[in-house]
Amino acid sequence: MSKPKLATIWLDGCSGCHMSFLDMDELILEVAERADLVYGPLVDAKEFPEGVDVTLVEGAVGSSEDLRKVREVRERTRVLVAFGDCAVTGNVPSLRNPIGPRAVLETVYLEKPTHNAQIPSQLVPELLEEDLPVHAWVPVDVYLTGCPPSAARIYECVKRLLDGEAPETVSEAVAWKFG
Ligand code: SF4
């Protein structure tokens, strides 16, 4: 029998949630035995695959590219986990919301550089008006809070999902906050 497919993605976050995932240490081997890790910063895969059972989404949705990714991931994932406080509430990335994206770009690219100051027009994805939590754009099945969530709580969450548990309603998803 094939194993469940597990994926992780990194949107507008600091990678701390993925670092905490790695802090599971030897328990990662248990996860690897029970699931195929098919996509994420820890895997050399270019395309997000179809038919993923569980995806952990780190970070808020702050750019057009984040939004494209999270919509694609939602379409291809059965159980989507908002992974860490940036994904759950907006947290640190959402601090920019009161001043808007233009002020952020001007501060970073025009005021701070000592030479060649310019706002990039290529390769850098367009910032959205606000940096919002994942559930503002796509349905979320499980909320795994913490900045970052501890390795123990990540393991407990993933284990339960691989055991076949999953909240079936929004209120159950909220109850699955893991602390
Ligand atoms: S929740 Fe905390 S650790 Fe995770 S990406 Fe956001 S700031 Fe980083």
Helices, strands, pairings?
Layout: E1 5-10, H1 16-22, H2 27-34, E2 36-39, E3 52-58, E4 61-63, H3 64-76, E5 77-83, H4 85-89, H5 100-111, E6 127-132, E7 142-144, H6 151-162, H7 170-175
Parallel strand pairs: 1-2, 1-3, 3-5, 5-7
Antiparallel strand pairs: 4-6
The structure holds iron/sulfur cluster (SF4).
Iron/sulfur cluster (SF4) binds at residues 13-14, 16-17, 58-59, 84-86, 91-92, 147-148.
Verbal overview:
This protein is α/β, with parallel strands linked by helices and 179 residues long. It has a single domain, classed as Rossmann fold (3-Layer(aba) Sandwich), CATH 3.40.50.700. Helix content is 35%, strand content 20%. It contains 7 helices and 7 strands; from the N terminus they run βααβββαβααββαα. It has helices at residues 16-22, 27-34, 64-76, 85-89, 100-111, 151-162, 170-175, and strands at 5-10, 36-39, 52-58, 61-63, 77-83, 127-132, 142-144. The protein has a 5-stranded parallel β-sheet with strand order 2-1-3-5-7, with helices on both faces. Strands 4-6 form a two-stranded antiparallel ribbon. Helix 2 (27-34) packs parallel to helix 6 (151-162). It is elongated. The two termini are 33 Å apart. The model has no long low-confidence stretch (mean pLDDT 91). The structure holds iron/sulfur cluster. Iron/sulfur cluster binds next to helix 1 and helix 4.
Q: How would you describe this structure in keywords?
A:
two-stranded antiparallel sheet, alpha/beta, 179 residues, Rossmann fold
